[in-house]
Structure formats: C-alpha cells, structure tokens
Amino acid sequence: xxSSQREWWHRHGWTIALLLTAFGLAFAIRTIFxxxxxxxxxNLYVYAGGSDSYYHSRVMTYIILNxxxxxxxxxxxxxxxxxxxREPLFDWMNAILGLVxxxxxxxxxxxxxxxxxxxxxxxxxxxxxxxxxxxxxxxxSRRMGLIAAMIFPFLPASIDSSTLGxxxxxxxxxxxxxxxxxxxxxxLKATGTRRWVVSYRRPREIGRGLKAFxxxxxxxxxxxxxxxxxxxxxxxxxxxxxYFVAIVAxxxxxxxxxxxxxxxxxxxxxVVTLIVGVVGFPMAFPYYIVxxxxxxxxxxxxxxxxxxxxxxxxxxxxxxxxxxxxxxxLV
Length: 331
Fold this sequence. Notes:
Layout: H1 3-29, H2 35-41, H3 51-66, E1 72-73, E2 82-83, H4 88-100, H5 109-127, H6 129-139, H7 142-151, H8 156-160, H9 170-191, H10 203-216, H11 218-235, H12 242-261, H13 267-290, H14 294-297, H15 299-317, H16 323-330
Antiparallel strand pairs: 1-2
C-alpha cells in the first residue's frame, strides 16, 4: 500500500467503518427477532404489512406466472374488479429475483419471490443509512452526516415498517426518495450562480446562455440527468411522488425570491430543474397511461412541476429589475 492509499484510508477509514456499523445495526435490529417466525411458518405466510403486503405478493405472483404486469384485477372491489393501484418497480423486482433464484428454492419461483419480498424491508432500510449520510454531509458536514446515519437505524417509525417479513415497499421508496433528494442537492451544488445570460431583453442572448451552460457545466447537467432518472424511478415506485414535486416547487419559489433579493442569477437552477422534469416524467408516462392512472396520479404532478417553472419564467426574466418591484409582481 503506497502513501496515497494510506492517506486515503486515514481520512476515510473511520467514516467507512461507522457507515458499515450503522448498516449492520439497522439490518440486525429489523431481522433477528423475526427469523424464528419465518423459520416456523415459511416465507409465504408471515406478511406483517397487512393487506398491502398480501397484494404485493399477489401482483408478484401474477408477474411470475404471466410475465406481464397486472392491470385489471377482477378480485379488487369484487365482483366488479378494479385497476391494480400498485406501482410496478417494486413488484417486478421481486418477481424477477424470484425467477432468477428459483433453483435455490426447489424451482419454486413464488417461494423465492416471497423470500425477497420479506427481505426488502430491512435491506432497503439498512441501505438508507448511506444516502442519509450523504444528505447530511451536503447540507452540513461529514460529522453531521455520520451522526444522522448512526441515529437512523434506531428510528421507531422506520423500524415499524421495515422488519423482516413486513413485505411492503415503504422502506424501498424511502430509499429512492433519499437518493433523489441527494442527487438534486448535488445538482444544485454543481450548478453555481454564474450569469449565463447577459441580458434577458435580447432573446438571442438566452439561447447563447443556454448553449454555454450546457457546454461548460457538464457536471451539473450530468447530476441533473441522474436526478431525473431517480425521479422517474420514484414515480414508478410510489404514487405519492407528488410530495417530491411539491418540495421542488416550494424550493424554487423561495429560492427565486431569495436569489432576487441577493441579486443572484437563478438561470442555472432553472435549467437543471427543467432537465430533471424532462428526464423523469417521460420515464413514468408509459406506465401511467397503460395502467389507466394518468388522471389524478400523473397529470397533477406534471402540471404542478411545469406550472411552477412556467410561473417563475417571467420572474427570472425580471432579473435586472429591482426586487421591490419584481417580487410583488410574482405574488
């Protein structure tokens, strides 16, 4: 081991050790007390998450048997039937894992899928310590990130919905939310506050500024694309992704107001946020159309996201107008 490697381990060794400890604690707390239950009753008969867990199992089994997503379920609202309300990413993941690892369970793909369905809760809760650390590090410091990561394994609300055998997707989409938030934070950090548009009064300058931004701020653009992919994955994991959209809309509004008061150009923030939406929404669009859930579950978040951007567009164009006039105009 050369000097550079020793220096790297000296600077990051304790961080890695503490994060792995937090991961191990989070996983152990959520599993050791439930292992005897699974051993006694088997993977298919211990779902502790109520009707949601059983329905995840039903959708997973349907995918394993038919290799297609369950759209209309005749057993919902029996005898009339209804659309399957569960997003595809979680159930398809369990179904594919069940098919791949079926040989280890005597060729029974349903048994294998049920094993992974029961395992997802503690696994994703334990993995969440890493984005918790990264978010804490971004908003404060490495020490704060480590403190947050060490506290997270002991949160009662997390333990309650992520034990072995819980069989639900709460810890899974929580992990996706944390990754999406971290990616968006990194996007904003990489964007900076440089003035890319000389004057908004000349439309050609806007195009030149956009081209210059995309050419020179490649790291910010890459993080924006990654944030969009994470956002699309979130929309395919949880119908409540509207909460993330609302957070972004509120942040943009407050950020633009503060930026105007401080004479900070928000052009870069506007562009990277637009990229997040342009990448994320098309990822989820086919599912919500095919699943007949466009109305209410896709159109409202879409309108909220791009509506906020459209509302803030003229406010951004008023960058050179004193804020005592532009902010009341926004209100």
